[in-house]
Amino acid sequence: MAEKLIHLIITRQDSPDSTPYKEEFKIPYRPNMNVIGALMEIQRNPVNAQGQKTAPVNWESNCLEEVCGACSMVINGKPRQACSALIDKLEQPIRLEPMSTFPVQRDLSIDRSRMFDALKRVKAWVPIDGTHDLGPGPRMPEVERQWAYELSKCMTCGVCLEACPNVNSKSDFIGPFAISQVRLFNQHPTGMMNKHERLEALMDDGGIADCGNSQNCVQACPKGIPLTTSIAHMNKETIKHGLKKFFFS
Amino acid sequence: MAKGHSFLSHRLHSLLGLFPIGLFLLFHLTANYQATRGPEAFNTAAGLIENVPFLLVVEFVFIYIPILFHAVYGLYIAFQAKQNVGNFGYFRNQLFLWQRLTGIITLIFIVWHVWETRIPKAMGAEVNFDMMANILSNPVMIVFYAIGIISTTFHFSNGIWSFLVHWGITVGPRSQRIATYFTMVVFVIVTFIGLRAMSAFIV
């Protein structure tokens, strides 16, 4: 009986500025494999489908349980994490591409700096640094904690930016995730104290106004974060903030 | 675009689409609908509009300037997107694409429509039933007008949905879903009024 093979078509790129090309691989099948396992198999034996020796495919991964977001890539046309993409559930040939919304560094690894820049822009943190003990912060109602926990599951994986038609080289849109993080930190009892700073950041160029309501983000998010609800909520908050500033200083 | 003004521009774009442009569209189509009761009824309705005091100022403030801003900024928004319905064929993403396509079709239609009706009026022609009947005596123009009307009513109806989200009125998924049904009903009704009015001019 012929050995069962997994057929992969990988979009590769040797350096940040070189032209991408496709390379096919056929690797031996093992039960319960994920895409990372298939890539590790190529790393062990870097031979393509034509039987030629090639450079092993480069990719990033870390936690292997879909909480770090490092192994995000486009698998069969959809951006998702390679660790939770099981070979048995994928249609073959399996097409792997980098999330090309971001600058590609090599093969499947990309540079997600723009996401961290976006988080810095909207000040997605609670400033608590001081020289003395400020004492315990105010408590948070349990009902609010429950939905805030859902928003806190964001792992900055970049899938929502890859899915969004308004995040591209022509726009400086910060992306759905950053808007949702503002909602998270603006309802935190201590984070709330700086909420106007985050609202103003959202109202700047490339902020919330660049959302065009395609709602791909909420469909694509691997953590099921209600991104479109967060965006609509922040639409309301920014409008309120803008009107208040205009009429009452 | 001016730096730091994109929030204001986007919100103004969304607001103007409904007030006054959307209201004008409804007014315009219902006035046209008078044609279904005969040429005299339409000519009376058109005559009433002619008698609005400071008509030219009203036209510029409530129609031309808002539409010009909405069109120019709309084109900027439309061409900034990188469409991806191929990989993400979700319902809202399809409508995202169609909102931008119908915006462009509607702009072409409006420019043509103004060229054929308002410009001749400024040159001294009289706007009446015969003017439209004459335009629509050409079968090609019937198809062009039908496409133009449907495109406009779609852009208007789906625009109501976007307005409700952009202004934070429909926030949760349930209210947004119900708004989708509501705007679909608006689309059917307004399209019926528009097309039925157009058919009245075909003699």
From TrEMBL, chain A:
Belongs to the succinate dehydrogenase/fumarate reductase iron-sulfur protein family. PROSITE patterns: 4FE4S_FER_1 (PS00198), 4FE4S_FER_2 (PS51379). It comes from Brevibacillus panacihumi W25. Keywords: 2Fe-2S, 3Fe-4S, 4Fe-4S, Iron, Iron-sulfur, Metal-binding, Oxidoreductase, Tricarboxylic acid cycle. GO terms for molecular function: 2 iron, 2 sulfur cluster binding; 3 iron, 4 sulfur cluster binding; 4 iron, 4 sulfur cluster binding; electron transfer activity; metal ion binding; succinate dehydrogenase (quinone) activity. It holds the Pfam family Fer2_3. The keyword Nucleotide-binding does not apply. SUPFAM superfamilies: 2Fe-2S ferredoxin-like (SSF54292), alpha-helical ferredoxin (SSF46548). Residues 145-173 form the 4Fe-4S ferredoxin-type domain. Its EC number is 1.3.5.1. GO terms for biological process: respiratory electron transport chain; tricarboxylic acid cycle. Transmembrane segments: none annotated. It comes from the Bacteria. This is succinate dehydrogenase. Its cofactor is [3Fe-4S] cluster; [2Fe-2S] cluster; [4Fe-4S] cluster. The lineage of its organism: Bacteria, Bacillati, Bacillota, Bacilli, Bacillales. Coiled coil: none annotated.
Automatic annotation (TrEMBL), chain B:
Signal peptide: none annotated. One of its GO terms (molecular function) is metal ion binding. Keywords: Heme, Iron, Membrane, Metal-binding, Transmembrane, Transmembrane helix. Heme binds at H28, H70, H113, H155. It is found in: Membrane. One of its GO terms (cellular component) is membrane. The chain crosses the membrane at residues 12-31, 51-76, 97-115, 135-157, 178-202. It comes from the Bacteria. Its main location: membrane. This is Succinate dehydrogenase. The lineage of its organism: Bacteria, Bacillati, Bacillota, Bacilli, Bacillales.
